[in-house]
Automatic annotation (TrEMBL):
GO biological process, one term: canonical glycolysis
Protein name: PFKAM protein
InterPro entries, per the entry: ATP_PFK, Phosphofructokinase_CS, Phosphofructokinase_dom, PKF_sf
Keywords: Allosteric enzyme, ATP-binding, Cytoplasm, Glycolysis, Kinase, Magnesium, Metal-binding, Nucleotide-binding, Transferase
Domain Phosphofructokinase span(s) in chain numbering: 1-55, 115-241, 363-579
Biased composition (Polar residues): 291-303
Species annotation: Columbina picui
Pathway: Carbohydrate degradation; glycolysis; D-glyceraldehyde 3-phosphate and glycerone phosphate from D-glucose: step 3/4
Gene this chain is encoded by: Pfkm
Disordered, as annotated region: 280-361, 594-616
Catalysed conversion reaction: beta-D-fructose 6-phosphate + ATP = beta-D-fructose 1,6-bisphosphate + ADP + H(+)
A GO term from the CC aspect: 6-phosphofructokinase complex
PROSITE patterns, per database record: PHOSPHOFRUCTOKINASE
SUPFAM superfamilies: Phosphofructokinase
Cofactor (UniProt): Mg(2+)
Amino acid sequence: GGTVIGSARCQDFRTREGRLKAARNLVKRGITNLCVIGGDGSLTGADTFRAEWSSLLGELLKTGACAPPGTPKTRGSGRERGQKWGQNWCQNRGVVGMKSRRILLQSPDFGSKGMGHQRTFVLEVMGRHCGYLALITALACGADWVFIPESPPEDDWEDHLCRRLTETRLGGSRLNIIIVAEGAIDKHGKAITSEDIKTLVVKRLGYDTRVTILGHVQRGGTPSAFDRILGSRMGVEAVMALLEGTPETPACVVSLSGNQAVRLPLMECVQVVSGERELGAATGHGKPDQNGANPTGTAQTQRAWGKPDRHGANLIRTVQTRPARGKPNWCGENPTSGTPRGGPQDEPPTPGGLSHGGSPPCRTLPKKYFEEISNNINAFGIHGLIIIGGFEAFTGSLELVEGRAKFEELCIPFCVIPATVSNNVPGSDFSIGADTALNTITTTCDRIKQSAAGTKRRVFIIETMGGFCGYLATMAGLAGGADAAYIFEEHFNIHDLQVNVEHLTEKMKTTVKRGLVLRNERCNENYTTDFIYNLYSEEGKGIFDCRKNVLGHMQQGGTPTPFDRNFGTKMGAKAVAWITGKIKECSRHGGCRTGGAGGFPTSQSPPSPPHVPRGHRLPKEQWWLKLRPILKILAKYKIELDTSEKAHLEHVTRKRISLESNI
């Protein structure tokens, strides 16, 4: 983490004299393009510098300091984590930057501290006037309550908080977690601090309460795989924006919308920040989150969902709730195969919630069990079905659609939540579990490279999982700085292998005397991991030696990353909202079976023709394949990047969707 160029806040730049000095430095050194990397202050400073450029240049001419080369083109590098969730960071926070965005809390480690006692933990996180980190942390660790500046709590929040904590204790929980953003305030603008909350809990409830202020520990450490890849992608987009820009091109902010890099006008981003700050200062309120919801705490979640457990919108509970009866329906380990064990239960068969990975159901396609499944649907009064899984879940849902012709009981709404490390479910961009596996691979590659710190001229051959899908190998290659990543989707031959060997041979002449090569487990049936290892060992004899590692199933275990926890929660909420709406719609038309209603299985959008499987358990289109040229560029191969597709400036949009209408 950190900055290799040593950049930091500059107080001089806040003054006109400081900005004049900066302009003089640019002119003297012939710098005509400027890429600003930073946060809210950098965005504001870049906009001010852009607005004053003409007058600064005129002042330099008047004093005879230097001759102007022209107007510099300014670009900002922006980012967002919801990537994957379809919102633009600049819409919500107005920040452009590649700051270290680390999710702060690993609930197994944090929660285990209090599992032997009955304790309440109050955790204060950074973020200044933005509650993003606090909110996402609360979702990731299953907090009981969260305070953020954008949504001050009601006047009687003390009573609500104490009631919530009491309910969870009476429900059997021995641990309470409260997350507080450092800028949290009440409706009257008064600060809400972690010490205030501790005093309240101790005084009213008498609970053993501990306060933890994370502080700057949040800003250090090793970047996640997502942050590494994001930095590379934003860097490439910023360079392309500068190369394509003209003196008339307005300054832009490079950001991420979904999984696509976009450019937003700098002026619009600054206006979004300024406008919302003024609104918050005037009313004591901030803006809602990206869904328009008021994320004051789990109390808001309760209104939409009823009474959740201490994990709030826990995926395990949420996606297996039977909306028609309003209580969980646990039909055993594998209800899809028609083998429920013990019928409906009040509690899930697996403990752990958000902090544990894995899944109890096994993988069995339903085609052979249509009759048993139909009987179980009738026996347990199932009105909708949510299928969680990978390509088998997608295939199984298609089989269920086909079975509707013979079995009326299958004419119920159902949808698929993609959950597989392979990330190969048609119709989806991301799958639950893929981010955890990717970070496991990235961390392992870091350790493997570190093991060679004292050994020169060594190349590591690493085999990753993913079936025929090269997502993990490609993204881990980008995050880990690989010299090559062999995947099934991109054909390679012996000539390509030889080019890679020659590249590594040249690399050993530089100061970086180690290499990393990733291979997807099923990229080629002949060019196996052993074959590539033997080839590299033979061709590199006397220049470098090789080691190989097959990571295996260690990529599927471990604690879920914060992204996977939040993604699972959001997908579960979205699936239940969709299926509940379908059930209500069916009820108005006399029932699902008589009305023949039922949605095509998906978690995001109905698969269009490009998403139909093309064989080898792969979608026809995979967005991440466009990132593979970046991998070779970073590895310093002499290749040309396709620049035929020009990006255009997009406008900042602000989505306002109420929680009640969406869930």
